[in-house]
Amino acid sequence: MFGIDGKHAIITGAGGGIGRALVKTFLAAGAKVTACDRDPALLDDLTGVEKLAFELTDAGATKRAIDLAVERLGPPDILVGNAGFTRAETLADVDAAVWDSEIAINLTGTYNIATPVLSHMVEAKAGTVVLISSVNGLIHFGNPAYSAAKAGMLAYSRAIAVEHGKDGIRANCICPGSVRTPAWDHRLAADPTLLDRVLPHYPLGRLVTPDDVANAALFLASPLAAGITGTTLPVDAGLTAGNLRFVRDVLGG
Fold it and tell me: Is residue 249 part of a domain?
């Protein structure tokens, strides 16, 4: 159905919650998958994939990893740039070291892997790039350095779409809202009522799942989205559409 059977998909951040859903979804659709992460232990239990561990902030190591991926499975047809990290919650928590680290991992790391992948796609005159950004790149929800990097990914995706459209390459971004991954476990352990306060902000009344994000990425990477490039797709359970709590409290109060 999705038309990616036998296509080579490179997925970064493959050992995390969203990454594992991406790997599962693309494998199920028939793709050949190279699963990438900075920690090889996170890839240990993945099956049916080629595995590469490297640091995205090291451009040389990233280029060598892509060369190895091509040697193993052939030139990449699909890149899903999913790797990301954040720690600082507000501007008060950001210093120069935090800023540099989060920009390096989230934005420069995306550039470091996209650059060698794009060279192969340009040669093939075909390819799709899907970058996993965040609603933080659209609206401020804290995490300032991370948000700046994720907003940069939107602009970078548009640059790829506009400048490489002539090469048969499409590029789009997905902006997830809060995703119910194991990263939430420690927060819920500390405060079991947390979701009671969070969920009313989401029109669907739930958090996004990793599968929600993976399914959107599969669609954008597939020929079903052949006419879509340079776009940003929120996958956020309606968070950026509006807030009924605001309507009730302000307009109805």
Answer: no
CATH number at residue 177: 3.40.50.720
**For a pLDDT cut of 90, what percent of the chain falls above it?**
81
**Which position has the token pair 């950026």?**
240
* 146 catalytically annotated: yes
Q: Is residue 253 very low, low, confident or very high in pLDDT (cuts 50, 70, 90)?
A: low
* Spatial distance between the Cα atoms of 116 and 133, rounded to a whole number of angstroms: 20
Which member of 7, 32, 51, 150 is catalytic?
150
**252 inside domain:** no
Does 88 score more than 80 pLDDT? no
**C-alpha distances in angstroms, 22 versus 18, 97, 182?**
6, 31, 15
In a domain, 90, yes or no: yes
pTM of this prediction? Answer: 0.94
**Which structural domain, as residue segments, surrounds residue 111?**
8-186+208-241
Q: Which of 114, 109, 184 is nearest to 146 (CA)?
A: 109
Contact (Cβ atoms closer than 8 angstroms) between residue 217 and residue 28: no
Catalytic residue, candidates 32, 51, 146, 202: 146
Establish whether 150 is a catalytic residue.
yes
**Alpha carbon 170 to chain centroid distance?**
16
